[in-house]
Amino acid sequence: MCKGLAALPHSCLERAKEIKIKLGTLLQKPDPAADLVIPYNEKPEKPAKTQKPSPEEALQWRDSLDKLLQSSYGLASFKSFLKSEFSEENLEFWMACEDFKKTTSAAKMAEKAKKIYEEFIQTEAPKEVNIDHFTKDITVRNLVEPSPSSFDVAQKRVHALMEKDSLPRFVRSEFYQELMK
């Protein structure tokens, strides 16, 4: 059993910091005007307009994160599951990278690259993804001159993490089990 924070594994410390930040935000006094304004970088989520997938389609998601991510219903279900676990940062990073790759304007690309870096990559970022220093260094070097592939290495690492960790948890969850009925 761990004694004190110093004895916790690195990932536990990161999780504890994340929880502390989220709890600190919740404990702040509410600003009545804040409820009336949607922050510039957040868009209201649109409900999925697609039908619930067949159990056969949902069954394919067990073996393929890519098939899950290609399904709008699967993506929405996976995102809801991750939010319920306070672990949606990897999926949000992956989605931000997909959006980034579609950017054609160099100025917009630089702007989006900076935002993605500040939100997900830099140390102590609000939604910092868990990538190794080697991957982080490559990504930072790629951002000197942003291109559609600037985040590819980091995105592949995060995809592998979701495939190895998040997807199996999702498949065991009630979210997924309900789809199989």
TrEMBL record:
Keyword Ubl conjugation: no
Keywords, comma-separated and alphabetical: Signal transduction inhibitor
One of the GO BP terms on file: negative regulation of signal transduction
Pfam families for the chain: RGS (PF00615)
Gene3D superfamilies noted in UniProt: 1.10.196.10, Regulator of G-protein Signalling 4, domain 2
Entries under InterPro entries matching the protein: RGS (IPR016137), RGS_sf (IPR036305), RGS_subdom1/3 (IPR024066), RGS_subdomain_2 (IPR044926)
Domain RGS: 64-180
Keyword Electron transport: no
Domain of life assignment: Eukaryota
SUPFAM superfamilies for the chain: Regulator of G-protein signaling, RGS (SSF48097)
Protein name per Swiss-Prot or TrEMBL: Regulator of G protein signaling 5
Organism: Myotis myotis
